[in-house]
Amino acid sequence: MVCIRRQFNDYRIAEIPFDGLSGIRWDTISGGVNNIAPKPFIHAYVWCDEVIGDIAHSCLHGPPPHSIKIVILKKDNTPKIFKKLLKLLDQNQKHIELNLIISRQMLKKYVML
């Protein structure tokens, strides 16, 4: 289980299974009220009806489930979970960099035609 919050400084902490996370990335803008954090934290999206525990989300704006943006703090999670998140972020970054290289190569070929 991964411990999550809605904003980095929220006192409410909930849990979600690791495979319930999507769109994992570094960010400084929280979900909900779009608070700006003082530094980048790991953020992801979860379905609100899969969250176990109390989190800053009310479902008042429509019937669930909603995809909500959450933050994952190192201090809330075990070293094993946090290392797994960092490894996934590193893989995502390498994938983005590879796509950028391929895009540049394709652009060069297109320009040379």
Offer a few descriptive terms:
alpha+beta; 5 strands; 30% helix; 113 residues; two-stranded antiparallel sheet; 1 helix; 3-stranded antiparallel β-sheet
The percent of residues in helical segments reads: 25-40%
> Helix and strand string, N-terminal first?
EEEEEH
Low-confidence stretches: none
User: How many β-strand stretches?
Assistant: 5
Gap from first CA to last CA: 52 Å
Strand order, biggest sheet? Answer: 3-4-5
The number of domains is 1
Based on secondary structure, the structural category is alpha+beta
Relative strand content: 25-35%
Main sheet makeup: 3 strands, antiparallel
Assembly level:
single chain
Radius of gyration: 17 Å
Textual characterization of the structure:
The protein is of the alpha+beta class and 113 residues long. The protein has one domain (2-112). 30% of the residues lie in helices and 28% in strands. The protein contains 1 helix and 5 strands. It has one helix spanning 79-112; strands spanning 2-4, 14-16, 22-29, 36-47, 67-72. The strands form 2 sheets. It has a 3-stranded antiparallel β-sheet, with helices on one face. A two-stranded antiparallel ribbon has the order 1-2. Strand 3 (22-29) and strand 4 (36-47) form a beta hairpin. The longest helix is centred in the last third of the chain and has 34 residues, at 79-112. The model has no long low-confidence stretch (mean pLDDT 83).
